[in-house]
Design goal:
Low-confidence stretches: none
Distance between the termini: 84 Å
CATH class: Alpha Beta
Order of helices and strands: HEEEHEEEE
Number of helices: 2
Number of domains: 1
Radius of gyration: 28 Å
Helix content: 25-40%
Strand content: 25-35%
CATH architecture: 3-Layer(bab) Sandwich
Strand order of the largest sheet: 3-2-1-5
Number of strands: 7
Length: 155
């Protein structure tokens, strides 16, 4: 015979209190991990900006050597942008080599620099042997790109 009354058997599943405890644990763990993820993302943005500026310096040096003229990396601190200009392959005037990179918008950083133009002669050496530093700042973190007197990136 089968009895259909409440004889002490339980249904399978979780109680509301068990589900709430699991949700609270997930919320606490997420709250602990989120600041670390945000910090890691900002550090990655600054590192990416440093690598991008280093690549742009290499592009300016390479264009100067390839085209046989003075080519430059330009840095705008107010707009947090950088771009490379070079002499035209044929004719007179200047070309922008590659895009005008809005690193400030793209990576959420600001730029400060000791000079706004880094010109390279046809040998790939910095014009005037005057190096400089580009400081990258974002949400409390700072890094820099140092261009030595001959035009090599040292940091």
């Amino acid at each position: 015979m089968t009895s259909y009354g409440n004889t002490g058997s339980r249904r399978a599943g979780f109680t509301m209190i068990e589900l709430l405890i699991v949700l609270i644990l997930i919320a606490v763990l997420t709250g602990l991990a989120l600041p670390k993820l945000t910090t890691a993302a900002q550090k990655a943005n600054i590192r990416s900006t440093r690598m991008e500026l280093g690549a742009m310096i290499a592009r300016a040096r390479g264009a100067a050597i390839q085209r046989g003229c003075v080519d430059s990396l330009h840095v705008s601190t107010s707009a947090a942008t950088a771009w490379v200009t070079a002499c035209k392959v044929s004719g007179t005037g200047r070309d922008t080599v590659g895009p005008v990179d809005q690193v400030g918008k793209r990576f959420g950083v600001t730029l400060a620099t000791s000079k706004t133009d880094y010109g390279f002669d046809p040998r790939g050496i910095l014009v005037g042997f005057s190096g400089g530093t580009i400081v990258i700042t974002g949400r409390g973190f700072t890094d820099s790109v140092v261009v030595n007197n001959v035009g090599k990136v040292t940091h």
